[in-house]
Amino acid sequence: MKNMINELWHGNVIPHEDSRTNSPQMKELLGYMARHHEELEKSFTDEQKETFEKFHDCWSEYMSLAEVAIFEYAFKLGAQLIFEIMK
What we know:
Layout: H1 4-9, H2 24-42, H3 46-86
């Protein structure tokens, strides 16, 4: 069995790369989103494209921050559960 703490320290465990996006449902949804994104962009003026790109950048940054917060919360919750079990 691997020493998970050691693996995490050395960067061999990368939770965000082994995420929910690997499920068939998520892949299908991402495909729909990409198709709709392309269709929407085709209808935009240059100014609207720029605004949409800024919105997209903000949304991506927000989602990255949200994923970190969720990971931290879940990690702490898991540690608390283990602590309760060990009592």
